[in-house]
């Protein structure tokens, strides 16, 4: 990748302040190095140095970044000027990046990476100005997952358009995570009849129940197809019309398909999703479900997600608790 | 996998006559062994012996089989009786299989594998009786890809339902292949305004043009995003409302996304599709497209595909030519 600091006619150079690694990417690095933060940091530096971008070769995923606009090409249409504090909403896997401080202020133990360096945004890149009323870390965490609630809301609205008066039930697998929590709130706001958040452990059940984001909270291992389908069916009184997969562990495809009603929709947001497992699983189970690849871009997604965070105290407190825990 | 020959209450045992390997799976084996048929055969035997099913560990895909019903469990609801000639429409990756003739009649040089052995179908399996008016090899080849035309037709119908009077344009990448050819015919039958089949080489352009399955035939390397988008846009007078990816080579995700109009739909049928490349590609390109995982099961798909083959001489002759070439 071309990592020259010069900006083209429709490009923007951003002085990078912080990277937010994709959860699946950070988990892979963390697991590979047995929790050795220095080794995680060394590998991130190695990847960015070699590829010219933060593109985890194992997970295929990147993340996003926060910074200050340094220079704007004369034909840029992103609506930004030098000095704007921005977050990129385009994946780091497509963003030329140069790290200049060797990540010396990062301990390698969290997804949020203090960083000094620069990145180049293109004409089709998407970047959002940071809101004045929210901490940058909080806004960044919201932007990182804002595609999930936006697409969930769209799918729920499509269901309502197809079958007026028959609001869909929605299951969110990984409902206590950041993308899952926002997706639950988005589903409810879009008119879902009933929602369930599925979580893997008791502590997450408590967290999600206290936040009040779902009508039901169910405990199940999403990698166990029968267990997941049973948990969803018990919570909703039947399979879900819409199942949203937000957990970043492999092997949730069959369970999500089994948990979904005939004619329903599964939305896969996890970067750990296997295309073949989803396609062949549905075929093998003779399951008539639509399966969507979770597109992280939906017009207006950033503003929509910030709006959900501002209007729902539960999801905001859950995000703040997750940021403190990082 | 349990490969016992005994049938459970809702199971069926089939005497296998022929396997039809998934195209991506066969290509991977063929390439790995440099076109050495004996080595391809040995690896298929090794995979089935070890895993109890034909499940290519690299591509994650399988294929389907043709045989004769041997024994039907008392509670089976598949509507089959002993002696029925059937093809399974469930992936081989989920079908217990025992090969008993060491594939001695197969030269390892084609996807169609003469075989003696048995397979077990479950309650949720899907199997179709072979039609009396078509050669078994032809019916098998149709069944193998029948999910693609069925889902393509559904997506085109959904477009028409959402925007009455504004029929969608459809691009099929890999339009001269079996799934691609049927998808083109299905799109036209479902009411597409205009169709283009994209092929990689001149010989396929001739084949597809002579079959008359598409309004336009375009030549492009689907792995080159800009070339693919340009070819589709030139042929249709703009990006496609629906893009269907039927080529079994990796790296077509970004091109398919770029070739698709904002608000449009991409359907990925290739097992070589990378979930992360699709999800992050759309996000990185800020492309507001819906992306569907090609589910090989749509109710009625087998009958629908046979109907297309019977009613369209072009697609039938293309299938027959492909079978002769195998």
State the gist of this model.
The first copy, chain A, is α/β, with parallel strands linked by helices. Chain A is built from 11 helices and 12 strands.
Describe the secondary-structure layout.
Two copies of one chain form a homodimer.
Chain A: E1 12-21, H1 23-32, H2 37-51, E2 63-72, E3 85-88, E4 97-99, E5 112-121, E6 127-129, H3 136-144, H4 147-162, E7 169-173, H5 178-190, E8 194-199, H6 202-211, E9 216-219, H7 225-236, E10 240-245, H8 253-258, E11 260-268, H9 275-284, E12 290-293, H10 301-311, H11 313-325
Parallel strand pairs in A: 7-8, 7-10, 8-9, 10-11, 11-12
Antiparallel strand pairs in A: 1-2, 1-5, 2-3, 3-6, 4-5
Helix pairs in contact in A: 4-5, 4-10, 5-11, 6-11, 10-11
InterPro entries (chains A, B): KDD_N, NAD(P)-bd_dom_sf
Pfam families (chains A, B): KDD_N
Organism (chains A, B): Pilimelia columellifera subsp. columellifera
Give an overview in words.
- Two copies of one chain form a homodimer.
- With 326 residues, chain A is α/β, with parallel strands linked by helices.
- Chain A has two domains: 12-134, no CATH class; 147-325, Quinone Oxidoreductase, Chain A, domain 1.
- Chain A is 38% helix and 23% strand.
- The first copy, chain A, has eleven helices and twelve strands.
- Chain A has helices spanning 23-32, 37-51, 136-144, 147-162, 178-190, 202-211, 225-236, 253-258, 275-284, 301-311, 313-325, and strands spanning 12-21, 63-72, 85-88, 97-99, 112-121, 127-129, 169-173, 194-199, 216-219, 240-245, 260-268, 290-293.
- In chain A, the strands form two sheets. Chain A has a six-stranded antiparallel sheet with strand order 4-5-1-2-3-6, sandwiched between helices. In chain A, strands 9-8-7-10-11-12 form a six-stranded parallel sheet, with helices on both faces.
- In chain A, strand 10 (240-245), helix 8 (253-258) and strand 11 (260-268) form a beta-alpha-beta unit.
- The longest helix of chain A is centred in the middle third of the chain and has 16 residues, at 147-162.
- The mean pLDDT of chain A is 93.
- Chain A binds chain B through residues 59-62, 89-91, 93-94, 124-126, 147, 268, 271, 273-280, 282-299, and chain B through 59-62, 89-91, 93-94, 124-126, 147, 268-269, 271, 273-280, 282-299.
- Chains A, B: It comes from Pilimelia columellifera subsp. columellifera.
- Chains A, B: This is L-erythro-3,5-diaminohexanoate dehydrogenase N-terminal domain-containing protein.
- Chains A, B: InterPro entries: KDD_N, NAD(P)-bd_dom_sf.
- Chains A, B: Residues 1-131 form the L-erythro-3,5-diaminohexanoate dehydrogenase N-terminal domain.
């Amino acid at each position: 990748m071309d990592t020259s600091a010069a900006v083209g006619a429709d490009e923007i150079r951003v002085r990078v302040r912080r990277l937010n690694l994709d959860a699946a990417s950070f988990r892979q690095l963390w697991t590979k190095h047995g929790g050795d933060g220095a080794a995680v940091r060394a590998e991130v530096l190695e990847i960015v140095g070699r590829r010219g971008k933060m593109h985890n070769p194992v997970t295929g995923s990147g993340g996003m970044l926060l910074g200050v606009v340094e220079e704007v090409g004369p034909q840029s249409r992103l609506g930004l000027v030098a000095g704007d504090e921005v977050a990129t909403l385009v994946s780091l896997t497509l963003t030329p990046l140069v790290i200049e401080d060797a990540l010396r202020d990062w301990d390698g133990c969290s997804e949020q990476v203090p960083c000094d360096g620069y990145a180049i945004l293109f004409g089709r890149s998407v970047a959002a100005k940071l809101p004045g009323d929210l901490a940058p870390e909080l806004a960044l965490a919201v932007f990182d997952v804002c595609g999930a609630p936006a697409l969930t809301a769209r799918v729920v609205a499509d269901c309502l358009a197809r079958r007026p008066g028959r609001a869909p039930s929605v299951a969110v697998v990984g409902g206590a995570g950041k993308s899952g929590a926002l997706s639950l709130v988005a589903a409810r706001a879009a008119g879902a009849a009933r929602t369930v958040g599925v979580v893997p452990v008791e502590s997450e059940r408590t967290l999600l129940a206290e936040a009040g984001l779902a009508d039901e909270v169910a405990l199940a291992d999403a990698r166990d197809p029968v267990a997941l389908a049973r948990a969803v069916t018990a919570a909703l009184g039947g399979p879900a019309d819409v199942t949203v997969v937000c957990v970043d562990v492999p092997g949730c495809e069959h369970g999500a398909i089994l948990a979904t009603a005939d004619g329903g929709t599964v939305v896969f947001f996890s970067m750990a999703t296997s295309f073949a497992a989803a396609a062949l699983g549905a075929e093998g189970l003779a399951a008539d479900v639509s399966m969507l690849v979770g597109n992280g871009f939906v017009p207006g997604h950033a503003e929509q997600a910030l709006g959900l965070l501002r209007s729902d105290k539960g999801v905001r407190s859950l995000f703040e608790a997750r940021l403190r825990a990082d």
